[in-house]
């Protein structure tokens, strides 16, 4: 069972990105992937895999002598939980407050504004 709100700490994101891209991956494959970026040792990878398995964020299947690791939470579910967490912490839970802040601080490009219009129009049609 994954953690209650499906949020990840920064180090967990490194592993989950690799698994979302190409699961299943073995311990050896993950060590190879994570050696350069973020520069983890084999023991760090092992510790992270154990902790994340205990937390229910990932799971594994034993195939021969190797553990094959899989994400146990969907990327979209984590993105939603992380977005909700950010909104709650920084914007009093308000998506409109976040967007108005970005607009006031001129943080949106014309392309992003157009994309947001399209998203809102699609949401309006779905209601």
Automatic annotation (TrEMBL):
Keywords: DNA-binding, Transcription, Transcription regulation
GO biological process: negative regulation of DNA-templated transcription
Listed SUPFAM superfamilies: Winged helix' DNA-binding domain
ATP-binding keyword on record: no
One GO MF term: DNA binding
Superkingdom assignment: Bacteria
Transmembrane portions of the chain: none
InterPro entries linked to this entry: BlaI_family (IPR005650), WH-like_DNA-bd_sf (IPR036388), WH_DNA-bd_sf (IPR036390)
Coiled-coil annotated residue ranges, if any: none
Pfam families according to UniProt: Penicillinase_R
tRNA-binding found in the keyword field: no
Family per record: Belongs to the BlaI transcriptional regulatory family.
Name of the protein in its database record: Putative transcriptional regulator
Organism of origin: Fontibacillus solani
Lineage of origin: Bacteria, Bacillati, Bacillota, Bacilli, Bacillales
């Amino acid at each position: 069972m994954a953690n209650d709100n499906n949020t990840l700490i920064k180090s967990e994101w490194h592993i989950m990105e690799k698994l979302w891209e190409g699961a299943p991956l073995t311990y050896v494959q993950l060590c190879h992937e994570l050696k350069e970026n973020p520069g983890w040792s084999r023991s760090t990878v092992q510790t992270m895999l154990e902790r994340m398995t205990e937390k229910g964020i990932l799971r594994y299947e034993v195939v021969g002598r190797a553990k094959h690791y899989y994400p146990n939470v969907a990327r979209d579910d984590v993105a939603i939980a992380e977005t909700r967490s950010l909104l709650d912490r920084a914007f009093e839970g308000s998506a409109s407050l976040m967007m108005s802040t970005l607009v006031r601080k001129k943080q949106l490009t014309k392309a992003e504004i157009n994309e947001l219009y399209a998203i809102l129009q699609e949401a309006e049609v779905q209601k």
